[in-house]
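Quick one, T. Sequence first:
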Amino acid sequence: MSAPIIDITDLSKFYGKARGIEHVNLEIGEGEIFGFIGPNGAGKSTTIRILMNMIFPTGGSARIMGMDVIRETKKIKSKVGYIPSDAGAYSSMDVHEFLSYCSRFYHVEKGEGRIAELSEMFELDLKRKIAELSMGNRKKVSIVQSLLHRPKLLILDEPTTGLDPLMQSIFFELLRSENRNGMTIFFSSHILGEVQMLCKRVAIIKEGKIIQLEDIENLRKKQLKKVTIEFGDDGAKKKFSIPGIESEIPGPENIFSFMYSGDINELVSILSGNKIVNLMIEEPSLDEIFMHYYKS
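Structure tokens:
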């Protein structure tokens, strides 16, 4: 088995007493599109900034392509593309000047052709000053810049912010194409739908810690059920208790919804003594499974 392209071991970062991430462990294989998902403030960007050597860890280590992210960052960055959540560039330059500078920096062969190809794909006006661009167009510049040198690894931190649906679709198809050509993609987002469309494996991070590492399909097959009970008595929900409830889902007073991991027969037996208008037992959506992990 080949060595992981990203290997994170017991990685922690504290800002004084404030927690960034704590004891994070991850291995990402070459050729994966790997999802890294969690709510804002969970530690996604902190992890990525350590990988990109923008901040130093408090403890633990991280390696990319077998190289230490601190000691060998220059070698790493020649092989990695990066799209930050807050896309920025040299605002005094126009788009073409900036991308040409990046092309020369990375020693891209036929760089002007690569710039033209990607800029046309994302409908970028190469003559516009970066300072004049909208947030969405700045994000397009960041995308093009990250892909100019055909990196072996692409690290994305909330990459679709500011992109309209059409550009998102073009971007995702480009990522799939680059992945088929061998590029590994580390895709960080708080939007589950994006991760679901692209990734086969995902890590869920909450409050600085990895709480679940799973294949997307396996998450769908978890034994959790979503149960929705509509009571005839508005007050029944308050006095009703069922063993096996994992997490409740907010709703009206007479409707009780929850994620359930217990025995269905036991559930039906308990319910038989109550005035129930409707009962629904179904497979939860992937969004509901993720919310369960966030709230538990």
